[in-house]
């Protein structure tokens, strides 16, 4: 078993101690992300990983995206954009696109300009989460585009009344609060997180730069009988650090995402349930980063530029569940989504107002960064797309040993193309403790505006792109007993028409093309063992084929939990294999294999909790490979030592 999951509770005081449950009990806790039906890890028609609240807290991470470093088949690491916007590594794929669908309380954070969620939402406070559910593998049969190599649903706290404070190295400060109230038929909950840090210093630049952080997270939910209204607002500022052309204190990255979702159970009887949902989301980014340093002698002052973009989407979804009999259940639904980019501007310090073009020439130097909301050069980016989807799934319990899922989704993306995403899962439990799954699914990702229509100093769009797709086959073995859980997953991905950056005009500019057709096979292994006091979890991933764009071919993590009479100790270690990649005849990137250690010590007394947390405890220096950086190296995060205090009001 990959990680534990969490029971649904009505208040903090009634939440079970997950560590008091044995492994067999934990394996029976239910999730819905994989099928829209309540399933356990053994009966879900996908390979899943679930983190409960205590497991999330034990990892000691502050950014929710870093949780993915403890998921078999996945890693999350810094990229080449201002503020070290994270990039996902999933089952051998590390490309600059949205191959993971990221959800927040079920709301899509992937948008239509860049596709990946981490551009507009690069940081989500892990402290506001009570659960993370993850599909490892295809999810388009349920979710449509972007559910390509996985789906991640960050689920916020619903039944908490608590206040937490943190102080740490490099000026780190955090305030986190959760509130819950129920009166008659009305329930209200909210979460707030405020975080800031001066960041770590880096001396690779001509002048010393940092990687500072400012973060605001606010969400609220109101439930009345069968109706639920959910709101969220996330703001991030990640300045300085690195961009394509190098380090600069003038690099800026400000982003915002917000959404409102109204869901309602329209009708229900003994066999039928009809649900409706309407949702709206808005995304904003104002970013400018180093593209051309003055040391090259082309311009007298550093050339910085970046997107000043706004996008939005609105969605209507109707879902139906029909219970045919005790052994069969049928789920179906329709979905419409309208996505648009309504602003395509730039923040830059070089601009020719006469030609209305971004031209890095001394005659066009503006003296400082200037924000332009819309420019003719980016006019093609102000585009919109309509997505129509219809999906269905049959769950059929053949007998005590066999369970089948058969489903498909058809998506029509107006003006681009259409895709059918089938899925099949056969689950066999021949004897106690053992389960086997044979799974097949197809997923796709629709090209986004940046790939289709971009026109800037770095990339040129390609309007002839088509959707990329993957065909995934999986064989899964699960073993669960009272104190031991094992999982082995063998997967085979057939990646077709993958969109990748292709250099043009030497290596100065890039365009996008459907150039990649590869097969990647790998194995994911997890083991969880409970001794008398010590809990041990091990995950290991091995790819048998080379990743697309150099990434980790082998990686693993080890988690330990040991309670003492004074405090509970947690140790979490990530191990990554070496990367040795030639960028050109003159430039070679090499990073030896390395380990990163996270540590946490927590003491609880009554309603109070005090803990000491450390990410990268040993302050290991390492580099993440990114081919768009001049030397391929993006520095990894250094040590982050924090003291935390929490008070529970329940």
Description:
With 650 residues, the chain is mostly beta strands. The protein is 3% helix and 57% strand. The chain contains four helices and 39 strands. It has a 22-stranded antiparallel beta barrel. Strands 1-6-7-4-5 form a five-stranded mixed β-sheet. Strands 2-3 form a two-stranded antiparallel ribbon. The chain is globular and about 75 Å long. Mean pLDDT is 91; it is low at 1-21.
Helix-strand category: mainly beta
Largest β-sheet summary: 22 strands, antiparallel, barrel
Strand content: over 45%
Number of strands: 39
| Overall shape | globular
Tell me, rounded to a whole number, the average pLDDT.
Answer: 91
Cα radius of gyration in angstroms? 24 Å
For the termini, the CA-CA separation is 32 Å
- Tally the helices: what do you get? 4
| Fraction of helical residues | under 10%
Residue stretches low in confidence (pLDDT < 50, at least 5 long) are 1-21
Write the layout of secondary structure elements.
Blueprint: H1 23-26, E1 48-52, H2 53-59, E2 74-78, E3 86-90, E4 100-104, E5 107-108, E6 129-136, H3 140-143, E7 150-156, E8 162-168, E9 172-183, E10 186-197, E11 201-202, E12 209-210, E13 213-224, E14 227-237, E15 242-243, E16 246-247, E17 252-268, E18 272-292, E19 303-325, E20 328-350, E21 365-372, E22 384-397, E23 402-413, E24 417-428, E25 434-445, H4 449-453, E26 459-460, E27 468-480, E28 484-504, E29 509-530, E30 535-543, E31 554-563, E32 568-576, E33 579-582, E34 588-591, E35 594-605, E36 608-615, E37 623-625, E38 633-635, E39 640-648
Parallel strand pairs: 4-7, 26-29
Antiparallel strand pairs: 1-6, 2-3, 4-5, 6-7, 8-9, 8-39, 9-10, 10-13, 11-12, 13-14, 14-17, 15-16, 17-18, 18-19, 19-20, 20-21, 20-22, 22-23, 23-24, 24-25, 25-27, 27-28, 28-29, 29-30, 30-31, 31-32, 32-35, 33-34, 35-36, 36-39, 37-38
């Amino acid at each position: 078993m990959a990680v534990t999951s969490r029971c649904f509770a009505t208040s903090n005081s009634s939440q079970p101690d997950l560590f008091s449950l044995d492994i067999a009990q934990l394996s029976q806790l239910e999730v819905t992300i994989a099928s829209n039906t309540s399933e356990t890890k053994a009966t879900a028609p996908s390979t899943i990983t679930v983190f409960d609240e205590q497991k999330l807290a034990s990892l000691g991470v502050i950014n929710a995206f870093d949780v993915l470093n403890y998921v078999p088949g996945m890693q999350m690491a810094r990229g080449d954009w201002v503020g070290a916007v994270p990039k996902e590594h999933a089952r051998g794929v590390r490309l600059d696109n949205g191959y993971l669908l990221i959800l927040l309380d079920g709301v899509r954070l992937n948008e239509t300009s860049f596709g990946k969620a981490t551009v507009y939402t690069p940081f989500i406070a892990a402290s506001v989460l009570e659960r993370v559910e993850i599909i490892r593998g295809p999810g388009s049969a349920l979710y449509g585009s972007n559910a390509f190599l996985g789906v991640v649903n960050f689920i916020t706290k619903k039944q908490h009344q608590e206040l937490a404070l943190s102080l740490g190295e490099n000026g780190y400060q955090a305030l986190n609060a959760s509130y819950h109230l129920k009166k008659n038929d009305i329930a209200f909950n909210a979460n707030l997180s405020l975080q800031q840090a001066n960041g770590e210093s880096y001396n690779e630049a001509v002048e010393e730069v940092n990687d500072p952080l400012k973060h605001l997270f606010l969400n609220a939910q109101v439930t009345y009988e069968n109706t639920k209204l959910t709101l969220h607002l996330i703001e991030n500022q990640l300045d300085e650090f690195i961009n394509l052309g190098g380090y600069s204190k003038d690099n800026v990255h400000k982003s915002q995402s917000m959404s409102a979702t109204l869901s309602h159970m329209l009708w229900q009887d003994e066999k039928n349930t009809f649900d409706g949902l309407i949702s709206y989301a808005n995304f904003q980014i104002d970013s400018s980063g180093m593209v051309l340093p003055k040391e090259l002698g082309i311009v007298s002052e550093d050339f910085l530029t970046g997107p000043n973009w706004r996008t939005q989407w609105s969605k209507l979804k109707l879902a139906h569940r029909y219970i045919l009999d005790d052994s069969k259940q049928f789920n179906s639904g329709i979905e419409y989504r309208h996505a648009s980019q309504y602003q395509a501007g730039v923040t830059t310090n070089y601009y020719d107002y006469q030609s209305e073009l971004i031209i890095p020439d001394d005659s066009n130097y503006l003296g400082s960064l200037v924000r332009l909301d819309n420019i003719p050069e980016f006019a093609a980016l102000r585009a919109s797309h309509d997505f129509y989807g219809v999906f269905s799934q049959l769950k059929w319990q053949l007998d005590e040993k066999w369970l089948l899922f058969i489903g498909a989704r058809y998506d029509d993306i107006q003006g681009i193309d259409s895709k059918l995403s089938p899925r099949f899962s056969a689950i066999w439990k021949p004897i106690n403790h053992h389960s086997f799954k044979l799974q097949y699914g197809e997923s796709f990702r629709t090209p986004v505006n940046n790939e289709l229509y971009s026109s800037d100093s770095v990339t040129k769009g390609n309007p002839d792109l088509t959707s990329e797709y993957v065909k995934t086959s999986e064989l899964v073995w699960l073993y669960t007993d009272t104190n031991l859980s094992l999982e082995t997953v063998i997967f085979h991905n057939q990646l077709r028409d993958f969109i990748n950056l292709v250099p043009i005009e030497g290596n100065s500019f890039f365009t996008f093309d459907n150039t990649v057709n590869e097969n990647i096979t790998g194995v994911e292994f997890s083991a969880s063992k409970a001794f008398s006091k010590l809990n041990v979890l091990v995950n290991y991933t091995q790819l048998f084929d080379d990743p697309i764009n150099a990434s980790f071919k082998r990686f693993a993590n080890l988690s330990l939990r040991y309670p003492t009479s004074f405090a509970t100790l947690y140790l979490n270690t990530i191990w990554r294999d070496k990367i040795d990649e030639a960028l050109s005849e003159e430039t070679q990137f090499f990073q030896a294999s390395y380990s990163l250690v996270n540590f946490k010590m927590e003491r609880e007394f009554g309603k109070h909790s005090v803990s000491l947390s450390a990410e990268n405890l040993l302050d290991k220096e390492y580099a993440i490979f990114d081919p768009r950086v001049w030397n391929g190296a993006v520095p990894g995060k250094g040590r982050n030592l924090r003291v935390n205090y929490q008070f529970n009001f329940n």
